[in-house]
Amino acid sequence: MTDIKAQASGINPNVQARDVKDLATRTGNIYETINVIAKRASQLSNDLKMELHEKLEEFASSSDTIEEVHENKEQIEISKFYEKLPNPVLIALDEFLNDKVEYKYKSTQEID
Hints:
Blueprint: H1 4-8, H2 20-27, H3 30-57, H4 73-84, H5 88-97, H6 108-111
Helix pairs in contact: 2-3, 3-4, 3-5
């Protein structure tokens, strides 16, 4: 697994218009292209979520009362960093356009 944060650092976090016909040429079908990008975005989203939770667990304290909320500056900075990352769909789209995503079709024998 590559470092998602390093990979996402060069991606523009703003949504851009894309040529649908250009996207469809890679798979031959726009729906297949969208499916590949969506599945990769889901993987990235899960990876980022797990990574963020692991980092935030380091700061977790076991207190019995709800009133005791401790704010940690490092915890806030980590959360802000993850909020600034591009959307997983944008990262997946960038990977797809740069041929960094591998996908294959299941044969009909595997499906049955």
